[in-house]
Amino acid sequence: MTRTTQQLLADRTRLLGPNVSTFYDDPVHFVKGEGVWLWDADGRKYLDCYNNVPVVGHCNPRVVEAIATQAATLNTHTRYLHDTILDYVEALTETLDNSLNTAILTCTGSEANDVALRMAEAVTGKRGIIATDATYHGNTALVSQLSKSNVPTVGFGLEQYFRFVDAPDSYRNPDPDGTKFAAAVAEQIAAHEASGTGFAALVVCPYFLNEGFPNHPDGWLKATAEVVRKAGGLLICDEVQSGFGRTGTHMWAHEKMGVVPDIMTLGKPMANGHPVGGVVTGADTMAAFRSGYRYFNTFGGNPVSSAAALAVLREIQERSLVENARVVGAHAQVRLRDLMDRYDCIGDVRGSGLVFGAEMVTDRATKEPASAYTDRLINAMRHEGFILSKLGRHKNALKIRPPLVFSIDNADMLFDALDKVLRDTPLT
User: Fold this and answer.
1) Residues 271 and 170 in one domain
2) In this structure, are 159 and 17 located in the same domain?
3) How many CA atoms lie within 13 A of 426 on its CB side?
4) Is the domain of 313 the same as that of 242?
5) 207-234 residue pLDDT tens
6) Domain check: are 307 and 419 in the same one?
7) Domain residues for 38?
8) Domain end position, chosen among 284, 299, 318
9) How far is CA 281 from CA 52, 58, 121, 132, 287, in A?
10) Residue 38's beta-bridge partner residues?
């Protein structure tokens, strides 16, 4: 059955319920992907400058072959023995500090973060969790409480266990050495302890992507990690968006920020779109969790998922995609700064590797967010054949986060188009 766009939208509401979100004023109906390219139902080609889930490119042949070969051989759960999950966890932990040497595989990042919070309770015996006030870590009943802007209006009374600190903002509220953020975390730790809840963990994306990936020097999280450890809590680094070489400087963003987490969580790009998530931690933390919870996940770590995840990791390593992210990202920064020199609506540019963007403002002096204008730019770029999005507290920062196979030529296509759209889209 071939539906028109309007029929698709009507049937989504009828079959999936109300308020199922879509991108763009004129939603796109994609039917094919390859590498950094997507095609819609009318055969139009788009450059994907946004999707980090197909981290090694849409329909990557190596990943497709791994999935098909394993699916044609065996797929079952981890209560039966199989090699591939062990091969993957061993290969994954080899990229990490020696203290991060055990893992649980899940189906999503949400599940991974849910497990991580329960690990923190198992280790500390406490339930107080701290996050930033402009982030997102998933959608289970427990984890959804971490997203202050997205907390459900109905729930299970879990909000008492969560406290928030202001998200870092290098543009409007610089904190060059991270001490202001560390002090804010310390204040909320004290509040948790005073309430009787106690402090269990701080959960952060180490590169603060949803918060607008502020410009911070390498090592910026060290002061905060010291505060967390001194209070007896755990540091949980959500690397769902920032990991697997995204920043171009390190395999993991927590390395860039100068810390080793007690728990690291993974998701989205882990298997190039096959539903895989994970929690990596030390043996003692894992033992405390396994003793405190009877945890089993039917699909987590199944042979097909493990094969897909291993293929992604090998592809990143063997094609030097972290280095590609560094080189292309450096070029992107040059192009962005050139645009900033010519367009006053760009208040700030930032990023590292293949996550970069520009914060749009109505006035550089006041730094007033140009949120509505950012929407217009994104929609205009969609009509030019380029897929990107927005993020940050004010939803006024362009979010450009393409697959790691994105090239300098791809970046030039993107910035040539953005130049045209900025020229043709007046601020007022």
Assistant:
1) yes
2) no
3) 1
4) yes
5) 999 999 999 999 999 999 999 999 999 9
6) no
7) 5-56+320-424
8) 318
9) 24, 30, 14, 22, 10
10) 33, 46
- The last residue of one of the domains, among 299, 318, 337, is 318
Mean pLDDT of 121-137: 97
CATH of the domain at 24: 3.90.1150.10
What is the percentage of the chain residues whose pLDDT exceeds 90? 91
Distance CA 202, CA 181 (A): 12
The average confidence (pLDDT) of the chain is 96
- Sequence-distant (6+) residues with CB within 8 A of 106 are 112, 115, 267, 276, 277, 278, 279, 297, 300
CA-nearest of 273, 257, 360, 258 to 66 is 273
pLDDT band at 152 (very low <50, low <70, confident <90, very high): low
Q: How many domains does the chain have?
A: 2
Distance CA 311, CA 283 (A): 25
Based on the fold, state whether residues 233 and 155 are members of the same structural domain.
yes
Please indicate, yes or no, whether residues 170 and 256 belong to a single structural domain of this protein.
yes
**CA–CA distance, 263 with 406 (Å, rounded to integer):** 30
Share of the chain above pLDDT 70, in %: 98
pTM: 0.96
Find out whether 96 and 270 touch, Cβ atoms under 8 Å.
no
- Per-residue pLDDT averaged across 369-376, rounded? 97
> 40-76, pLDDT tens digit by residue?
999 999 999 999 999 999 999 999 999 999 999 999 9
Cβ distance 216 to 223 under 8 Å?
no
Tokens coding 160: 């008492």
| Measured distance CA(190)–CA(266) in Å, rounded | 29
DSSP secondary structure letters along 7-48: HHHHHHHHHH-TT---SSSS---EEEEEBTEEEETT--EEEE
Rounded CA separation 141/120 (Å): 17
